[in-house]
Design a protein that fits this description.
The chain is α/β, with parallel strands linked by helices. It is built from 14 helices and 14 strands. The strands form three sheets. Strands 1-2-3-5-4 form a five-stranded mixed barrel. It has a five-stranded parallel β-sheet with strand order 7-6-8-9-10. Strands 11-12-13-14 form a four-stranded antiparallel β-sheet. Helix 5 packs parallel to helix 9.
Length: about 550
């Protein structure tokens, strides 16, 4: 898609537009290099005859060529209408609408500037068949041309019908038409708010029917334009004013009949969302019974006409008064019947009850007797509990742990004294010698235990040394290899060279059963070969 200037104005000069060929309109063929297609500022050719083989074409700059093309295209084509399929539609943050218009054989880039795009009633989308009306514009910096549209109409359904269906599908997808969000209308509102034109016939019809049915019912009118430029914003503001206050119980949005264009204010998205946000229930009464708007689907209740809205909201006062009168009489009769029934029931109960004084005296005598029996039972119960407590205390004192412990301690002291006296008599020692003998016995016992633990540690250490001694290693089949030249142990094959002499030490058992050592000498061959012993045998 070719780019265009943001302000929508062509960058070509007026002189270039004046330099188009007079024959450009014949057969839609334009010769860009003919003498007639050159601007007036081009240097004139000499009048002398020039042979065709000697003529040389004028050398043009890119800007001059593009200026000629711009003048010829814009001046030769003029305002046109082009039909095709929309693709690559995108609306920029600036408000400009860019798109591509295509058919089965070609495509052309297009743009619709912000002022024109803001007047569209529907939303252009990819795949939509439309007719674009505008002009062809050439953008010299890129050398491309594009269609600058100021009107776009969908093929088939009109723009308003398409916009209506698009907005209806969008709001329905958001759940604004669901029956679950519809609020019930008040039976008899204290005050009704009306959003409409104060000079329209719809308001007069509404008030006439409303006050015929219920004279004196308060109405608060929020005036707003209901048709034309800016009417949608006024309707939204009026609904929000009524919703923000606490003066009304229901809002009526109404106007008289008309064409789809006349009723379009109530098909705007802002009006529909204002109705959905309203704090109180909303009744839509737009046009005649056959007219439907988006406001009808969003509102809590639709009335076919403004007078129908009045009939929905205001019951007939005379009928209400008659109903109240009938209900009052029914209530009076019901109350009288209820009172009579109560009196009869009271009389029957009084006859069954008899003399209440006699019953009270009998109850008092029975109560006094019960009080005496209760006091006697309480006294005997308390005495029995006291005797039981005294017996338990005596038994507890007799078996007290403290008493028994004191007795045991006295017996233990007596036994200890007797034992000490018997020991002194048997040994003939005084107490100091006896204590010394006891300490000696404890010392000997401690020394014996210490020696035994040291012997056990020595045995364990010897067993560990025995397990890692060379003799035990030889017994398990291992051997040691030493270098003859240095006497050091050979730990890796990289430490020995071919032809060097090594000594292998292995173990053997003697007749006494001990393990001895024996050695075998060998000469190392080249890497990867075997080894020979001292006799030269492998």
């Amino acid at each position: 898609m070719s780019a265009g200037r943001p302000d929508g104005r062509s960058s070509g000069s007026a002189a270039a537009r004046r330099g188009r060929s007079d024959a450009a309109g014949e057969g839609n063929q334009i010769d860009l290099f003919s003498a007639g297609a050159r601007p007036a500022s081009t240097t004139a050719v000499a009048a002398s005859p020039v042979r065709p083989e000697d003529a040389q074409p004028a050398i043009l700059s890119v800007s001059e060529l593009t200026s000629r093309i711009k003048g010829l295209i814009e001046g030769g084509i003029g305002r046109i209408s082009v039909g095709g399929e929309l693709s690559n539609c995108r609306r920029q943050s600036s408000g400009h609408l860019y798109f591509t218009l295509k058919d089965g054989g070609a495509t052309i880039g297009g743009v619709m500037w912000r002022q024109s795009a803001g007047r569209l009633k529907f939303e252009p989308k990819d795949g939509l068949q439309v007719v674009c009306e505008g002009r062809i514009d050439v953008y010299p910096p890129h050398g491309k041309y594009q269609l600058v549209a100021d009107r776009i109409e969908p093929l088939g359904a009109g723009a308003l019908a398409l916009a209506f269906e698009q907005l209806k599908a969008k709001l329905e997808g958001e759940g604004l038409f669901e029956a679950g969000r519809k609020r019930p209308l008040p039976f008899l509102p204290r005050r009704i708010g009306v959003v409409t034109s104060p000079t329209g016939a719809a308001l007069r019809d509404f008030l006439r029917v409303l006050h015929l049915r219920f004279p004196g019912l308060p109405v608060l009118v929020a005036p707003a334009k209901v048709q034309g430029e800016g009417s949608g914003a006024e309707v939204v503001a009026a609904i929000e004013r009524l919703s923000a206050g606490q003066e009304v119980d229901v809002v009526v949005v109404t106007r008289g009949g008309g064409s789809m264009e006349d009723l379009w204010t109530f098909n705007e998205e802002a009006v529909a969302r204002a109705i959905a946000r309203c704090r109180v229930p909303v009744v839509s009464a737009i046009g005649h019974e056959i007219d439907f708007t988006i406001a009808d689907f969003v509102a809590d209740r639709r009335a076919p006409t403004p007078t129908g809205a009045a009939e929905l909201l205001a019951p007939v006062r005379a009928d209400l008064e008659a109903s109240v009168l009938v209900l009052g009489r029914r209530l009076q009769r019901g109350l009288l019947a209820r009172v009579q029934t109560g009196r009869e029931q009271l009389l029957r109960l009084r006859m069954r009850l008899g003399d209440p004084g006699r019953g009270v005296a009998d109850r008092r005598l029975a109560l006094a007797e019960l009080e005496d029996r209760l006091a006697e039972a309480m006294r005997s119960g308390v005495d029995g509990r006291r005797q039981t407590l005294r017996r338990l205390r005596e038994r507890t004192d007799a078996r007290s742990p403290r008493v028994e412990l004191a007795a045991r301690l006295r017996g233990l002291h007596a036994l200890r004294s007797a034992l000490e006296r018997a020991g002194r008599r048997a040994l003939g020692l005084d107490p100091r010698r006896l204590a010394l003998a006891q300490l000696d016995a404890r010392l000997r016992s401690a020394m014996a235990g210490h020696v035994q633990s040291r012997r056990e540690l020595l045995r364990i250490g010897g067993a560990r040394l025995e397990a890692i001694s060379p003799e035990r290693v030889f017994e398990r089949g291992y051997s040691m290899t030493r270098l003859v030249r240095s006497g050091g142990l050979l730990r890796s094959s990289s430490e020995v060279r071919p032809g060097e002499e090594i000594e292998v030490v292995v173990g053997f058992r003697t007749e006494a059963g001990r393990c001895g050592e024996d050695s075998v000498r060998a000469i190392v061959r080249a890497a990867g070969g075997g080894a020979k012993d001292a006799t030269g045998q492998a």
